[in-house]
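Exercise 7. Predict the structure of BTB domain-containing protein from Colocasia esculenta.
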Amino acid sequence: MWCHSCREEYEEEDAGTCKECYEEASETEEELKREIEDLKAKVAFLRLCSPVDPSPSSPTTTDVVLHAASPAGECTSVPPIPAHRAVLMSRSPVFKAMLENEMEESRSGMIKITDVTYNVLRSFVHYLYTAEVLLDEQMACDLLILAEKYQVKHLKAFCEKFMISKINNDNAIVSFAFAHRHNAQHLLEAALSLLLDNMSTLTAREEYKELVEKDPRLVVEIFEAYLRRQVNIALKD
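Solution. The predicted structure, encoded as tokens:
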């Protein structure tokens, strides 16, 4: 790449970059690096320490605890998960309504979420503080459900994006049904698109037979979408 003045001094077949252009590009690169480092520093500054983080810097002055369900078939209770009212209220409108008003959770400082496991709830609380979470396919499903319930939109979107990246022929039907139940529109569209691309093998799958029994309206929706696609293809031809 050449600056305007260099074009007059060098022939077109000459290779390389002039010193002036090189220095300008280097300065731009350094500026970008400084901006990136500055943004990283700001994010680190704004990041809250999670009370479920075992590090010594974890805050201890929590004023509310969350309780998850005990493992299935076990009588032992799981440890409570500490948190701050202010953080929960700022991250979730559901928590805000719960803790702001004269509800039992507000008075007792105890929030029972008995439809999730301890590990899922712990990851959920950690995300509310740090915007960080480690996902596998099961954790993504569980956290998406929890994020939808408590209206943590960015977590739901993050889990949905992860699940879309894992869609394949084997789980497309299950993903489609899951997306319907939990209003995950992008996941629904991705799963439906894959199903429509593989309609010839759809009815042979066990998941399809289960869907026919459990929720036949979704089967109708799949075939309606397939017919619309075929009509659109015919019209284009």
